[in-house]
From TrEMBL:
Entry GO CC: plasma membrane; type II protein secretion system complex
Family: Belongs to the GSP H family.
Keyword DNA damage assigned: no
Chief location category: membrane
Coiled-coil residue spans: none
NCBIfam families named in the record: IV_pilin_GFxxxE
Protein name, per record: Type II secretion system protein H
Domain spans labelled General secretion pathway GspH: 44-146
Sorted UniProt keywords: Cell inner membrane, Cell membrane, Membrane, Methylation, Transmembrane, Transmembrane helix
A biological process from GO: protein secretion by the type II secretion system
Pfam families referenced in this protein's UniProt entry, alphabetically: GspH, N_methyl
Topological category with respect to the lipid bilayer: Single-pass membrane protein
Organism: Pseudomonas sp. W17
Length: 156
């Protein structure tokens, strides 16, 4: 008669569970950080594309094109709109979706909009910086006086 049964002993099962718990404890925080980094990169790229689009439309239309929050006096982390002309509500060219809940988007100036003149240059008298933050992720987009949009803290 065969007395050996197939299976795991209690000790083997506990060791396997301890190893699995250790792996989960290491993987979950790294996964969360990766998800936040990807989300930050995606949202800052959407903003970068919207700013580049506004600049190109200003050049193509040979008129002022701007980007601002869709609702008057709304924060920059809400929905944004790209518009042509002096009236923000007049000719909306594109709508940029709001960023993730918990993320912040701030302008380093008191301007309520970022406007490009008909030559593609920044209509403001100084370069603008847009700071994006989500937990430990931080990104900066600078809009230089010549209208160039770069993912850096200065226009150097």
């Amino acid at each position: 008669m065969n007395l050996h049964t197939k299976g795991f002993t209690l000790l083997e099962l506990l060791v396997a569970l301890a190893i699995a718990a250790l792996l989960v404890g290491l993987v979950v925080p790294a996964y969360r950080t990766t998800v936040q980094r990807v989300r930050a990169d995606t949202e800052i790229n959407q903003l970068h594309q919207a700013l580049a689009y506004a600049r190109l439309e200003a050049i193509n239309r040979r008129q002022r094109v701007g980007i601002r929050p869709a609702a008057k006096d709304a924060p920059w982390n809400g929905e944004l709109m790209v518009y042509a002309g002096q009236d923000p509500g007049g000719n909306v060219l594109r709508v940029v979706p709001a960023i993730s809940p918990g993320a912040t988007l701030t302008l380093t100036s008191d301007d309520h909009s970022i406007d490009f003149n008909r030559l593609g240059g920044l209509a403001a008298s100084d370069a603008l910086h847009i700071v994006y933050g989500l937990d430990q992720q931080r990104r900066v987009i600078s809009v230089c006086l010549n209208g160039r949009v770069i993912a850096a803290e200065n226009c150097g």
